[in-house]
Amino acid sequence: MTTVAPAPVRRKWMTAYALAMIGVAAGWFGPIQILLPEQAARLAGDGGKEALLALVTAWGAAASMVANPLWGMLSDRLGARRPIFLAGTAVGIAGLLTLSAANSTPVMVAGWMLVQAGLNGPLAALAAMIGDRVPEQQRGTVGALFGVAQIVGVILGTAVAVAAGDETIGYIAVAVAVPALGATLLIINREGVIARSSSFHWRRPGGQFAWAWIIRFLLNLVNALVLVYLLYYLSDRVRVDDAATWVLVLTVVNVLCAGIVGFAGGMLSDRWERRRIFVVAGALVLALGTALMALVPTVSMALVASVLIGMGWGAYIAVDMAVITQVLPDAETRATMLGVANIAGTLPQLLAPVLAAPIVTMLGGYRTLYLVTAGFALIALALLPRLKTLS
Q1: What Pfam families does its record include (predicted)?
Q2: pLDDT tens figures, 204-252
Q3: How many other β-carbons are positioned within 10 Å of the β-carbon of residue 307?
């Protein structure tokens, strides 16, 4: 079958696409950075908050890891992205509302699992739209939007959580933001003709896809390890008075740096037709930023580290989606394989608290945690030569 290259997308579509991704990310990261940690502290107290947060986020990430490829497979079978976007958003909202009323560990776990499982629907649809709608020469720019919008969603979700000042109101506000920000894209996006298969046929991914997956996994694990205990790091290690406000400040700094570097990097990668140099820069700067968090636990150095981590993450997300879409096996299983690729983003959420909790409590504390985190970034860098087809 001859594949016709998609026509270039316009700024209106890009803007709507970015807003939809911001909404999905707000639904994810608002709870992760503020609402879930505060809820865990309320339910389990200072002695058990780390363990409860690890339990909740681990179950949620497990649900996410299964849900993303399943949503992608269903999207490929249907030959459409809009129904997946709508259905997943509805499930995610149900989870957020469940969390707003959670007063026990089982309800908290169930609510976060619903959020994770549900919001993987619109995430899978948005990822597949890049392959469906965006030509190769624009994938650096739009792929950067995909990544930058996620981190803008982090600040929006965090800001909503801080401004609400109440868990219930915070969850409800985020539940409203998710569909509101996605509505424009649903209205203006043309589905077109998407390759459809009447049955699912697994096509074994090539070695390039596998190495791209591993590198993506490692750098997402770095990001997850930075985020998962940031509130506790600031309160227990840096010992700031208002840790939640400082989480917001550091998030703003991180997002501004990542957004500027990510969007500029995406456009430059399209213009230069180069992706590898951005991954190299991203891994190196992420390693430096996390090492500073480990070695100099002060407010001023936390700000410097936030700048570096933002710049490093921005450099990587500038080309992340362009790299992944370049190594997909075929168009007919695009959403399915992007779902598999997205496990590299969700599995770190499962592993981060599992790795972080024993390190923080028994194996050297936050110093060891962030040195290990820097090590993962350097491993990703060492594996990059395996991507032989990457320009």
Answers
A1: MFS_1 (PF07690)
A2: 556 788 899 999 999 999 988 988 788 888 988 888 888 888 888 888 8
A3: 18
